[in-house]
Amino acid sequence: MSAAGTAPDPPVLRMRGISKSFLGGRVLHGVDLDLHPGEVHALVGENGAGKSTLMKILAGVHRADGGTVELSGERVSFEHPVQAQRAGVSTVFQEFNLLPERSVAENVYLGREPRRGGRVDAHRMAADTDRLLDELGVSGISARTRVGSLSVAEQQIVEVAKALSHDARIISMDEPTSALAGHEVELLYALVGRLRERGVAVLYVSHRLTEVFDLCERITVLKDGERAGTVDADETTSAELIRMMVGRSISAFFPEPVEGTAPGPVRLEVADGGNEHLDGITLRARGGEIVGLAGLQGSGRTELAHALFGLRRFTRGEMWVDGRRVVLRSPHRAVRAGVALVTEDRKTEGLALNQSVLANGRLVLDAVMGVRAGERARRLPGLFSSLELVHRDSAQEVRYLSGGNQQKVVLAKWLATDPGVIVLDEPTRGIDVGAKRAVYTLVRRLAASGVAIILISSELTEVLGLADRTLVLHDGRIAGELPGGASEEAVMALATGHGHPTEVP
Amino acid sequence: MTVSVAASTPASALGTVRSGLGRMGTTGVVYLALVGIVAAGTAVAALNGQNLLATANLVDTLTRSSLLGFIAVGQTLVILCRSLDLSVGYVVALSSVVAATTMAGDPARIWLGVVAVLAVSALIGLVNGLVITKLRVNAFIATLGMGLVIKGYLDTLYQGPAGEVPVAFQVFGYTRVGVLPLSTAVLIVVAVLAIVFLRATRTGYHMYAVGGDAEVARMSGIRVDRPVITAHVLCSVAAGVAGLLIAARFGTGSSLVYGSGYELESIAAVVLGGTYLLGGRGGVAGTVAGVLILAVLDTLFNVVGVDPFFKDVLRGVIVITAVAIYARRGGGTAHPPRFSRGAHQRPPAPDAPPGTGAGPAAEHRPDTTRPARDPTATAKDHADPAGRGGRT
């Protein structure tokens, strides 16, 4: 490879022909990527397209099978994340590498605490951290604050400060906004701006195209482990990007309702429900209906799901399932009443990852159905195939499945109990575009079978594209109800507390 | 450790106390509890016509605490690393035997005995640490096994008291300055050294890191085995010092003291002192208070003449209660409630934008009613910096 300096603007990172396989499956094939100082470069693609793997190779978590990585013209090969950090390549993963019980400074300098005369120089550590936070334009976080007391957005800032303390020239961020609330996203934008001013190259991995267009100058699209192209953000559109990612147009994205789906009897009704996070919740869902629940992060969406499922029950108001009044003191009772909750966090709350597909499918049956469990479990293989679950056999451990297939196991687990009401909390989080569509189709089919569906999602397009009507939450209350096909603007107005609630029909 | 407590709302007196405790930190609470128990104990003893703070009782309390103190300080380091040492009781017994048999009544061999004890106990700790980190044997099993090995050795070779401790060394067991026994003074020195070690050395910092999240520590370039091994060596050495103290008090090696249950009592003292049993949070200062609480209670029970079996019941209840309280105080970012649990609140008038004006909603904003803790929040609360489900 020729030395840097021949090109007018030498890239700080040059990846060429990166390839990687896991257990014989090819994940990356001949991928090229250039980053220039001060550039914000987006990396987009379906999950499974190889974004994470490419990022992890850059971070030193994985080693590439083939290809070269050059930093400012110098060939490098990282075997450990610490090597990459020392070379100026830092990564902010979705799962933060922070110790909640330790202070901000202790986290920023973890593993390389400054010393004076053999003792850790806590004073200098705090001062340096405060200076870094200052440079990032952050106020309100002190170096001595315990990290566990910070919000997710603030913890992200700590991660970035940690990266800068390594004099990072390249910072890659994995889905940085996935856990942020609306106003926190602004903070992140400002942060990325500061990094750009400092001449740091930012590799921005995201599903959210709005952000990609807001922040990035160039966009590299990965598809099936290969680079589908690198484009200037100014010269492309989101439709074009989606086409490059999936090869199909966006209008075909949300399936139409299954023919013959008609609203049936009311299966779920809540009158004036409330607890310490919610108040005045009145809603009604008929069989065959998909009721969307929208709202900003922290508006009470997940709390409502938990209340409907008896995790944090309503302490006020009344609730009926299939016409019977129920007081759901525990998830056990909720399941018996015919309510199912597909949780937001599939890996820790939805699945026993190191158990088999079949064992996971039986989880709820065994817990709640008692003697009838065996009989119902016989339907599981049928359910698996009707969900088009891709698995080796029913003894395969769930952790080896892809995100989309894991979600299908969760759904099968619930469908085996014949629920009347299914609450879906972020059902497509972290699964790729193709698998999302499969989930959407499934939701439609469930509705057609007469189940009442409550669909919670932070992706507005998803709620609006699927739901027959949408309830918008704001500060723990229902701010209003919108019919299917409402505009994103209408939802946002209610969600931010600026809209006028419409009358419930 | 709740940080922001806005003092504006008409909080109940209880709420104020709670938020005050919240600001204090667990160690402060433990010392407050110690003061409370001493005060209550003094009152109870006075009702029985006794003085808990009489010199004899104070000496008794301090003497009692020093033995457990050494073991518990060591155990703290191990537990901070998310490990455990169940062999300490056996190390104490072995150390007393090694000390007494090496010294063999000869004042000139005192130092030899001390060095031998420290070397043997350090070696045991090293083996514990290596087995746990390199062979990846669960700490519970590894140290239990080590304890059994030592027990077998002692039972085979030493049926009763062994060796003899010279009178010159017995001063370690009996000398005192005023009410302060020499052994307690040594314990204080050891505890201070341990605190400095945790607060001012990289290894100390890394113990918290490894105990808090080994993967985070590893990704930050920490060689995660080292703090764990160091903690085990130091813990065993501390148990060795406790063994020296036993030898000095009894004047001979007592192989059977392993039956005294020091390993579990030390763990109880550590968690009573506010250290999280799963590592990463806590410290030696709290442990010292935990040890003192147990010692004060023991003295009190003796003074008042409580049935020894009931004594254990009370101690058990106290330890469990304490840990339950710490668990509720919790560390994580609990999601603050927005509305009260019981009373019904009227939703805002339909034409007012919800929650903007002065309605009932404004009073119940999270920023004004930041609670000391959320009773319904669990460790896996979704407000935890989660959003972690979305990775493939």
Please provide a written account of the structure.
The complex is a heterodimer of chains A (505) and B (392). By secondary structure, chain A is an alpha/beta fold. Chain A has 2 domains: 238 residues, P-loop containing nucleotide triphosphate hydrolases (Rossmann fold); 136 residues, Rossmann fold, CATH 3.40.50. Helix content of chain A is 33%, strand content 24%. In chain A, the strands form 5 sheets. In chain A, strands 6-9-10-3-11-12 form a 6-stranded mixed sheet, sandwiched between helices. In chain A, strand 19, helix 16 and strand 20 form a beta-alpha-beta unit. The N terminus of chain A is likely disordered. Chain B is 63% helix and 2% strand. Chain B is built from 15 helices and 4 strands. In chain B, the strands form 2 sheets. Chain B has a two-stranded antiparallel sheet with strand order 1-4. A two-stranded antiparallel sheet of chain B has the order 2-3. In chain B, helix 8 crosses helix 9 and helix 12 crosses helix 14. At the A-B interface, helix 2, strand 8 and helix 11 of A face helix 9 and helix 10 of B. Chain B: This is Autoinducer 2 import system permease protein LsrD. Chain B: It holds the Pfam family BPD_transp_2. Chain B: One of its GO terms (molecular function) is transmembrane transporter activity. Chain B: It is found in: Cell membrane.
